[in-house]
What we know:
Layout: H1 3-21, H2 34-46, E1 47-50, E2 53-58, H3 61-70, E3 75-85, E4 88-103, H4 105-114, H5 134-145, E5 146-151, E6 156-163, H6 166-178, E7 189-190, E8 196-199, H7 202-212, H8 224-239
Antiparallel strand pairs: 1-2, 2-4, 3-4, 5-6, 6-8, 7-8
Helix pairs in contact: 1-3, 2-5
Amino acid sequence: MSDANAGDSAADADSDATVDAGVAPADDLLESAPETAYLWGHVAGGGEVERGEFTVSTSDETCANRLAVIAGGGDIDRRETEREYAHNTAVTRVKDEYRVTVDGDVVRSASAAFGLPVGDDAGGYRFDVFEDRRKQLLRGLLESCGTVCFKSSTGTVGISFVHDDRALLETVDRLLDACPVNAPTGEIGETSSGGYWFGIDDDAAAGFGEWVYEGSDGTNLFAPTRRRKLVRSLEEAENA
C-alpha cells in the first residue's frame, strides 16, 4: 500500500470514528463552545491531569468515544473495576470503565487556563470562559462526579455530586447557584470514604435534570447510559 493510500485509510478511519460518535473534533480546545465545555467538565469531575496529559474515566463507552473525538484523538482503555459506593463503603460494584488518555501541549495550556489541578498541585477551577456554556459544563460535571437516583422514600429524583476535592464541589455549587433554573443545594459534607458530597434539594432536582439535558439530542453531548438513568428516575417520580 502506498503512503497516499495509507493516509487515506487513516483519514477514513478517523472520519468513521467521528460519525459513530456523533460529534466532531473541537476547533480549539481552549475556546468556549458546547463541546469544549462538556469535555472539560468531564476532565474536572472524573479526570486525572499530569503535565502534558490527562486521563478521564467514564463507565459509558459511547461517552468515551465522544470525548476522544472532541479532544482530537486519544487512547481508550477498557478495564473492569470494583468501586465502593460513595455513601456506603461496605457495598461495592463491579463495572466496565473506559479511560480516555489525551496528551499534547494543549493539555498544559488548558491546565493553566482553567485552573485544573496537576498531579499533587491543587487547582483553582477557573471556568468563567464557559459562562455562556454553563449547561454543557454542568452536564459534563454531572456525568463525571454526579449521582442520579429515584428516592422511593420521598417519591422524588435525587441528584448529588461527590468528589475527593472539596474545591471542585464548591465550584460546582457556585455554578448551580448561577444557572437559570432553581437548583438550591445543601451543605457540603464528608463521605464515609473520606471525600465530599452535596445534593440538590429534592423539590428542585427534577427541574435541574430536565434543564441540563435539554437540547442534548441535537449535539450528542451526553453519555447515553447516564441520560437514560435520569429519564427513568424522572418517570418513576412522575408515577410515584
